Amino acid sequence: MTGVPGGIGKSIPIDKEHPLSKSDPELKQILHQLSSQIQRAYIRASSIADSAPTFEPVSYATQVVAGTNYYVKLKVTQHGLNGQNCGGGKDDGKEYCHVKIFYQAWTKTTELTGISVRMTKDDPFEYDMPAP
């Protein structure tokens, strides 16, 4: 985990060369734990009724606070209720969202604290995100 207290650390890519299971296995577990909450928050924030989006983490950064804030960029794939790819987003049918997760290991606190939707692949992380 890197970062200056109060500042957001450098964005770390998540790909075949840098899988989340090696770079931050704790974050991998946190994303799995919060997956349904992230999906509900995304649907609410996007005002999409007929969707079952899936998410793929593409990068993350950390901020050291009284615990850790994780800023995670997720590639979103829209699926209709019948499972078909709906497209309609950016980047050839894909769009991105950013989530902010507060994690405090010693109290076992894990909270989705922010979500920004309709982001692009190149949008930087922001300190303040709308509440989920």
UniProtKB/TrEMBL annotation:
Q: Where is this region: Disordered?
A: 1-20
Do you know which SUPFAM superfamilies this protein is assigned to? Cystatin/monellin
Output the Gene Ontology terms for molecular function.
cysteine-type endopeptidase inhibitor activity
At the top level, the lineage of the source is Eukaryota
Parts forming coiled coils? none
Q: What is this protein called?
A: Cystatin domain-containing protein
